[in-house]
């Protein structure tokens, strides 16, 4: 991800400076921070004062509407797909809202749209999405077709009419006069 910044500086409500392990900032309206906590340096080997400071720092970030995910070092090493899926769910849930009124997107639809950003206008297939989100190809096809019906994707077909994949688009907003 081009928008993943290691060791990101974040100001809290009190004006204090905090550092988080990673920050994903796809636009100026959305910031998601990720913390990776090793058992020793973050729990076993810290003082009571540092333990309290970690909790206070997290509270101040959350009160300032920052989106924060915490993972353990062991969890990332031993179950990386679970951590990846959690990040995708978070991006889907906390990410940009759908433009236009009345357009509702589900968690998987939002995750697919976020994943589509890595394709930069190129075709993606349901098999790619299924592998990335750990869902069946049939389920991926269903969600991608739903996004096409809502104007977020366009189905790419061969000259014989066979669907080859989908390309993400930006839906047009209707202007009020």
UniProtKB/TrEMBL annotation:
It comes from the Bacteria. SUPFAM superfamilies: Winged helix' DNA-binding domain (SSF46785). This is Uncharacterized protein. It comes from Cohnella xylanilytica.
């Amino acid at each position: 991800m081009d928008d993943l910044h290691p060791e990101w500086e974040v100001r809290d409500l009190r004006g204090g400076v905090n550092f988080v392990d990673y920050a994903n900032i796809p636009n100026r309206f959305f910031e998601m921070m990720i913390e990776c906590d090793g058992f020793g340096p973050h729990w076993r080997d810290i003082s009571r004062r540092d333990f309290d400071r970690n909790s206070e720092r997290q509270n101040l970030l959350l009160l300032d509407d920052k989106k924060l995910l915490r993972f353990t070092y062991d969890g990332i090493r031993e179950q990386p797909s679970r951590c990846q899926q959690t990040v995708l769910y978070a991006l889907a849930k906390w990410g940009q809202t759908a433009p236009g009124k009345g357009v509702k997107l589900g968690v998987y639809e939002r995750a697919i749209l976020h994943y589509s950003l890595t394709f930069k206008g190129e075709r993606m297939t349901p098999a790619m999405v299924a592998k990335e989100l750990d869902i069946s190809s049939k389920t991926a096809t269903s969600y991608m077709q739903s996004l096409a019906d809502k104007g977020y994707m366009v189905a790419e077909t061969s000259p014989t009419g066979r669907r080859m994949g989908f390309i993400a688009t930006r839906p047009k907003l209707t202007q009020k006069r």
